[in-house]
Design goal:
Strand content: under 5%
Oligomer: single chain
Mean pLDDT: 93
Helix content: over 70%
Shape: globular
Keywords: Membrane, Transmembrane, Transmembrane helix
Order of helices and strands: HHHHHHHH
Largest sheet: none
Distance between the termini: 44 Å
Protein name: Phosphatidic acid phosphatase type 2/haloperoxidase domain-containing protein
Radius of gyration: 17 Å
Pfam families: PAP2
Length: about 180
């Protein structure tokens, strides 16, 4: 199956069960805010691993945004609802589709918690997959956009870890 076939396989699931549509709309539009709220709560209530993870995530997020901006200089894929004249479940702009910013952001956060072996990683992973799937389900992204977003999140984290490593070596910071 190709990217477009998988998109329509998922997108055509909509409008069958209103409750599922509501969950997918929530995942596509609002779940990212819940991810940030959980990060803030874990900053105050979590252990040292969660505090380290939020620092890594906060360093990774601007790097992910820069990577996305660079990619947008070269890849200008229109969103599926523009290309196929379909009505998405949510209203969205007419900017480019690849990679998904939501997927990039949530994956950068989720993998930060994985890196520090946080017990909260499975929840962040679940929310990452929910955001990604729901962005396809509501019709604003292709599957490749989501996978590209996950990859951008991982790459931004790798770059962040290299920056931290450089800073530790340069300024003799204690190891994390």
């Amino acid at each position: 199956m190709n990217n477009i076939s998988v998109f329509f396989l998922i997108f055509n699931l909509r409008n069958q069960y209103p409750f599922v549509d509501a969950l997918m709309i929530f995942g596509a539009e609002y779940l990212i805010y819940l991810v940030f709220i959980l990060m803030i709560l874990l900053t105050f209530k979590g252990k040292i691993n969660e505090r380290k993870a939020i620092i890594l995530a906060l360093l990774s997020l601007p790097i992910a945004v820069v990577l996305i901006k660079i990619i947008h200089l070269f890849i200008l894929e229109p969103r599926p609802y523009i290309s196929y004249h379909i009505t998405p479940l949510i209203t969205y702009g007419d900017d480019v589709s690849f990679p998904s910013r939501h997927a990039s952001i949530v994956s950068a956060i989720a993998f930060s918690y994985l890196h520090f072996k946080s017990k909260w990683f499975p929840l962040f992973l679940f929310m990452m997959v929910w955001v990604g799937f729901s962005r396809i389900y509501v019709g604003v992204h292709y599957p490749i956009d989501i996978l590209g977003g996950f990859l951008v999140g991982i790459i931004s984290q790798i770059i962040s870890l290299q920056i931290i490593k450089f800073l530790k070596a340069r300024f003799f910071l204690p190891s994390a």
